[in-house]
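F.,

This is the one I mentioned.
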């Protein structure tokens, strides 16, 4: 077989392997997120969250940032769940903070990071910085005069012009007399609908990430990883490119710890769970494009500054 065909075949095998690894890793967590979304829709009434969340935007964002301790989902499952919470009355500032912080500030990821790095500065800095960036970004969204305009119409609360859910063949979410079995059937119906709706973004993101990993050699990126600034940029780019689930990314970061600066390793662990290729496409299924730019750029700038500050001022 000619060398060009051999190279094409090898690239196709790499592309297929990477795509399947991303999809198989992410799909169960997306399903968990859509199941949680169905449970919220069926067992919580409209306005329940708005009554529980503080009125002050910063306090609401802080509560949203730690909500992942109750809803342990990764960056795939958090998107449909955050959308459902908004439709149930959670303020957008709290939902944004939850969207960005939950993939790190949850028991599963805390345990995996602890297993990889132990109880030390990487663990504590990852949790603290992720929470800080998420709350700060959520607070920025809180100062929008009409925050519901940052959402696509299908993601807005019904009272803000959103479309009602079309599950007319099953009991209403707030119907207290509905038998438990019927309500659980409605949970499954909503979960399946949302899985296929958000799954198309997961597939598109996985294909794009696999294509970029096939075309862009990781060795080329890793060869640039020296210096306090370049190393941070390289590992952020690698985190976006790899699109690894936050439940296992600590073990990947551990492999870089010996040859990269602490600030760059931390940037990998903080920014990757917030923004990667597949989650960006899922954002586009919930938010207006302007809001997606905010969700990408604001955490990016704060992560860059934090990584640079650690590299220049902190000795670990």
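My design for it:
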């Amino acid at each position: 077989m000619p060398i060009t065909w051999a190279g094409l075949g090898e690239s196709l095998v790499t592309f297929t392997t990477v795509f399947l690894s991303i999809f198989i890793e992410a799909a169960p967590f997306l399903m968990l997120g859509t199941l949680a979304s169905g449970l919220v829709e069926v067992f919580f009434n409209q306005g329940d969250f708005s009554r529980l969340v503080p009125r002050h935007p910063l306090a609401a964002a802080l509560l949203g940032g730690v909500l992942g301790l109750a809803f342990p989902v990764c960056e795939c499952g958090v998107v449909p769940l955050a959308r459902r919470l908004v439709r149930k009355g959670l303020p957008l500032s709290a939902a944004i903070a939850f969207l960005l912080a939950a993939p790190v500030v949850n028991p599963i990821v805390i345990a995996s990071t602890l297993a990889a790095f132990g109880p030390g500065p990487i663990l504590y800095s990852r949790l603290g910085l992720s929470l800080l960036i998420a709350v700060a970004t959520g607070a920025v969204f809180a100062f929008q005069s009409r925050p519901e305009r940052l959402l696509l119409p299908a993601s807005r609360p019904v009272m803000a012009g959103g479309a009602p859910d079309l599950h007319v063949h099953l009991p209403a979410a707030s119907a207290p007399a509905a038998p438990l079995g019927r309500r659980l059937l409605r949970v499954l119906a909503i979960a399946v609908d949302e899985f296929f709706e958000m799954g198309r973004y997961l597939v598109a993101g996985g294909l794009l990430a696999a294509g970029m990993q096939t075309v862009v050699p990781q060795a080329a990126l890793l060869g640039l990883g020296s210096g306090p600034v370049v190393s941070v940029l390289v590992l952020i780019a690698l985190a976006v490119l790899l699109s690894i689930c936050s439940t296992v990314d600590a073990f990947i970061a551990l492999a870089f710890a010996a040859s990269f600066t602490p600030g760059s390793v931390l940037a990998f662990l903080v920014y990757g769970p917030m923004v990667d290729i597949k989650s960006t496409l899922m954002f586009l299924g919930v938010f207006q494009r302007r809001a997606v730019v905010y969700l990408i750029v604001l955490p990016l700038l704060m992560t860059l500054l934090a990584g640079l500050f650690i590299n220049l001022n902190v000795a670990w």
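The chain has a mean pLDDT of 83.

Talk soon.
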